[in-house]
Protein backbone atom coordinates (compact mmCIF):
# COMPACT_ATOMS: atom_id res chain seq x y z
CA UNK A 1 0.00 0.00 0.00
CA UNK A 2 2.86 2.34 0.88
CA UNK A 3 4.59 1.45 -2.39
CA UNK A 4 1.36 2.25 -4.27
CA UNK A 5 1.30 5.69 -2.63
CA UNK A 6 4.66 6.39 -4.27
CA UNK A 7 3.81 4.78 -7.62
CA UNK A 8 0.53 6.67 -8.13
CA UNK A 9 1.95 10.23 -8.18
CA UNK A 10 4.82 9.11 -10.42
CA UNK A 11 2.41 7.50 -12.89
CA UNK A 12 0.31 10.68 -12.83
CA UNK A 13 3.35 12.79 -13.71
CA UNK A 14 4.28 10.38 -16.52
CA UNK A 15 0.71 10.48 -17.87
CA UNK A 16 0.47 14.29 -17.82
CA UNK A 17 3.91 14.85 -19.39
CA UNK A 18 3.32 12.19 -22.05
CA UNK A 19 -0.08 13.68 -22.96
CA UNK A 20 1.17 17.27 -22.91
CA UNK A 21 3.80 16.41 -25.54
CA UNK A 22 1.05 15.13 -27.86
CA UNK A 23 -1.94 17.42 -27.27
CA UNK A 24 -2.28 21.20 -27.38
CA UNK A 25 -5.26 22.47 -25.39
CA UNK A 26 -5.60 22.00 -21.61
CA UNK A 27 -8.88 20.08 -22.06
CA UNK A 28 -7.32 17.63 -24.50
CA UNK A 29 -4.29 17.19 -22.24
CA UNK A 30 -6.53 16.46 -19.24
CA UNK A 31 -8.63 13.84 -21.05
CA UNK A 32 -5.60 12.20 -22.68
CA UNK A 33 -3.65 12.11 -19.43
CA UNK A 34 -6.58 10.52 -17.57
CA UNK A 35 -6.89 7.88 -20.30
CA UNK A 36 -3.17 7.19 -20.24
CA UNK A 37 -3.12 7.07 -16.43
CA UNK A 38 -5.90 4.45 -16.34
CA UNK A 39 -4.12 2.34 -18.99
CA UNK A 40 -0.82 2.65 -17.15
CA UNK A 41 -2.31 1.57 -13.84
CA UNK A 42 -4.14 -1.32 -15.51
CA UNK A 43 -0.90 -2.45 -17.14
CA UNK A 44 0.95 -2.26 -13.81
CA UNK A 45 -1.85 -4.22 -12.14
CA UNK A 46 -1.61 -6.97 -14.79
CA UNK A 47 2.19 -7.12 -14.45
CA UNK A 48 1.84 -7.27 -10.66
CA UNK A 49 -0.74 -10.06 -10.90
CA UNK A 50 1.42 -12.08 -13.30
CA UNK A 51 4.48 -11.70 -11.06
CA UNK A 52 2.39 -12.66 -8.02
CA UNK A 53 1.16 -15.84 -9.73
CA UNK A 54 4.70 -16.69 -10.86
CA UNK A 55 6.05 -16.31 -7.32
CA UNK A 56 3.49 -18.87 -6.13
CA UNK A 57 5.05 -21.53 -8.36
CA UNK A 58 8.76 -20.67 -8.43
CA UNK B 1 10.00 33.05 -37.01
CA UNK B 2 12.26 30.00 -37.50
CA UNK B 3 13.83 28.62 -34.33
CA UNK B 4 17.17 26.87 -33.97
CA UNK B 5 16.34 23.19 -33.46
CA UNK B 6 19.60 22.30 -31.69
CA UNK B 7 19.23 25.24 -29.30
CA UNK B 8 15.64 24.21 -28.56
CA UNK B 9 16.81 20.70 -27.64
CA UNK B 10 19.80 21.94 -25.62
CA UNK B 11 17.69 24.42 -23.62
CA UNK B 12 15.04 21.75 -23.06
CA UNK B 13 17.69 19.33 -21.78
CA UNK B 14 19.34 21.95 -19.55
CA UNK B 15 16.20 23.21 -17.80
CA UNK B 16 12.81 21.45 -18.04
CA UNK B 17 10.43 23.46 -20.21
CA UNK B 18 13.09 25.93 -21.42
CA UNK B 19 12.94 24.45 -24.94
CA UNK B 20 9.17 24.99 -25.08
CA UNK B 21 9.62 28.51 -23.72
CA UNK B 22 12.12 29.16 -26.52
CA UNK B 23 9.68 28.00 -29.23
CA UNK B 24 6.89 30.11 -27.73
CA UNK B 25 4.86 27.50 -25.84
CA UNK B 26 4.89 29.34 -22.51
CA UNK B 27 2.04 27.41 -20.83
CA UNK B 28 3.53 24.02 -21.58
CA UNK B 29 6.95 25.29 -20.51
CA UNK B 30 5.57 26.17 -17.09
CA UNK B 31 3.73 22.84 -16.80
CA UNK B 32 6.86 20.82 -17.64
CA UNK B 33 9.05 22.92 -15.35
CA UNK B 34 6.76 22.50 -12.34
CA UNK B 35 6.06 18.79 -12.89
CA UNK B 36 9.60 17.64 -13.68
CA UNK B 37 11.42 19.79 -11.14
CA UNK B 38 9.03 18.83 -8.35
CA UNK B 39 9.38 15.13 -9.24
CA UNK B 40 13.16 15.41 -9.35
CA UNK B 41 13.42 17.29 -6.07
CA UNK B 42 10.91 15.01 -4.36
CA UNK B 43 13.17 12.09 -5.32
CA UNK B 44 16.26 13.94 -4.15
CA UNK B 45 14.66 14.67 -0.77
CA UNK B 46 13.52 11.03 -0.44
CA UNK B 47 17.12 9.95 -1.03
CA UNK B 48 18.26 12.22 1.81
CA UNK B 49 20.03 14.50 -0.72
CA UNK B 50 22.53 11.70 -1.48
CA UNK B 51 21.17 9.87 -4.52
CA UNK B 52 22.29 12.19 -7.34
CA UNK B 53 26.01 11.75 -8.00
CA UNK B 54 28.54 10.42 -10.46
CA UNK B 55 30.35 7.17 -9.74
CA UNK B 56 31.77 4.25 -11.66
CA UNK B 57 29.12 1.69 -12.67
CA UNK B 58 26.31 3.84 -11.33
CA UNK B 59 23.85 3.69 -14.18
CA UNK B 60 21.09 5.70 -12.47
CA UNK B 61 23.05 8.85 -13.21
CA UNK B 62 22.58 8.23 -16.94
CA UNK B 63 18.84 8.71 -16.44
CA UNK B 64 19.31 11.57 -14.00
CA UNK B 65 21.51 13.36 -16.54
CA UNK B 66 18.43 13.71 -18.73
CA UNK B 67 17.66 16.64 -16.48
CA UNK B 68 20.82 18.58 -17.25
CA UNK B 69 21.42 21.55 -15.00
CA UNK B 70 19.95 20.27 -11.69
CA UNK B 71 21.93 17.01 -11.94
CA UNK B 72 25.17 18.78 -12.82
CA UNK B 73 24.74 21.29 -10.01
CA UNK B 74 23.74 18.76 -7.37
CA UNK B 75 26.50 16.33 -8.35
CA UNK B 76 29.04 18.98 -7.45
CA UNK B 77 30.05 18.00 -3.95
CA UNK B 78 30.65 21.47 -2.51
CA UNK B 79 27.26 22.56 -3.83
CA UNK B 80 25.67 19.54 -2.17
CA UNK B 81 27.19 20.43 1.19
CA UNK B 82 25.96 24.02 1.09
CA UNK B 83 22.49 22.96 -0.04
CA UNK B 84 22.45 20.29 2.66
CA UNK B 85 23.22 22.90 5.29
CA UNK B 86 20.34 24.99 3.96
CA UNK B 87 18.02 22.04 4.54
CA UNK B 88 19.39 21.47 8.06
CA UNK B 89 21.83 18.67 7.24
CA UNK B 90 25.41 18.46 8.47
CA UNK B 91 28.26 19.83 6.38
CA UNK B 92 29.78 16.37 6.12
CA UNK B 93 27.12 15.08 3.74
CA UNK B 94 28.35 12.31 1.50
CA UNK B 95 27.02 10.71 -1.66
CA UNK B 96 25.39 7.29 -1.67
CA UNK B 97 24.89 4.90 1.23
CA UNK B 98 27.48 3.01 3.21
CA UNK B 99 26.95 -0.73 3.65
CA UNK B 100 25.72 -0.31 7.23
CA UNK B 101 23.11 2.34 6.40
CA UNK B 102 19.50 1.78 5.44
CA UNK B 103 17.22 4.52 4.13
CA UNK B 104 13.77 3.12 3.30
CA UNK B 105 13.02 5.68 0.57
CA UNK B 106 16.50 5.90 -0.96
CA UNK B 107 15.72 3.65 -3.93
CA UNK B 108 12.25 5.13 -4.46
CA UNK B 109 13.87 8.57 -4.54
CA UNK B 110 16.43 7.35 -7.09
CA UNK B 111 13.61 6.05 -9.29
CA UNK B 112 11.83 9.42 -9.04
CA UNK B 113 14.96 11.30 -10.16
CA UNK B 114 15.65 8.84 -13.00
CA UNK B 115 12.06 9.02 -14.27
CA UNK B 116 12.16 12.83 -14.14
CA UNK B 117 15.39 12.80 -16.16
CA UNK B 118 14.07 10.39 -18.78
CA UNK B 119 10.80 12.33 -19.10
CA UNK B 120 12.80 15.51 -19.60
CA UNK B 121 14.53 13.89 -22.59
CA UNK B 122 11.08 13.23 -24.10
CA UNK B 123 10.11 16.86 -23.42
CA UNK B 124 13.37 18.16 -24.96
CA UNK B 125 12.79 16.02 -28.07
CA UNK B 126 9.27 17.46 -28.29
CA UNK B 127 10.75 20.99 -28.19
CA UNK B 128 13.14 19.91 -30.99
CA UNK B 129 10.16 18.71 -33.07
CA UNK B 130 8.20 21.94 -32.46
CA UNK B 131 11.25 24.01 -33.46
CA UNK B 132 11.62 21.98 -36.67
CA UNK B 133 7.96 22.74 -37.47
CA UNK B 134 8.69 26.48 -37.19
CA UNK B 135 11.61 26.00 -39.61
CA UNK B 136 9.42 24.16 -42.12
CA UNK B 137 6.76 26.86 -41.85
CA UNK B 138 9.29 29.63 -42.52
CA UNK B 139 10.73 27.70 -45.53
CA UNK B 140 7.17 27.24 -46.85
CA UNK B 141 6.52 30.98 -46.62
CA UNK B 142 9.89 31.81 -48.21
What's the helix and strand layout?
The complex is a heterodimer of chains A (58) and B (142).
Chain A (H helix, E strand, L loop, with lengths): L1 H19 L5 H32 L1
Helix pairs in contact in A: 1-2
Chain B lengths: L4 H10 L3 H5 L3 H21 L13 H5 L3 H7 L2 H10 L19 H36 L1
Helix pairs in contact in B: 1-7, 3-7
**Helix amount of chain B:** 55-70%
- Beta strand % of chain A: under 5%
- Straight-line distance between termini of chain A: 24 Å
Class based on secondary structure composition and strand pairing of chain B:
mainly alpha
What is the overall shape of chain B? elongated
Helix and strand run of chain A: HH
Pair of chains with the largest interface and how many residues each contributes:
A-B, 11 and 17 residues
| Weakly predicted, low-confidence segments of chain B | none
> What does the radius of gyration of chain B come to?
17 Å
Mean pLDDT of chain A: 91
* Number of extended strands of chain A: 0
Number of E-state strands of chain B:
0
For the biggest sheet of chain A, the summary is:
none
Distance between the termini of chain B: 11 Å
List the total number of helices of chain B.
7
**Which structural class should the secondary elements of chain A be placed in?**
mainly alpha
Number of helices of chain A: 2
- Mean of residue pLDDT values of chain B: 84
The number of distinct structural domains of chain A comes to: 1
List its traits.
A: 58 residues, 88% helix, 0% strand, B: 142 residues, 7 helices, 66% helix, elongated
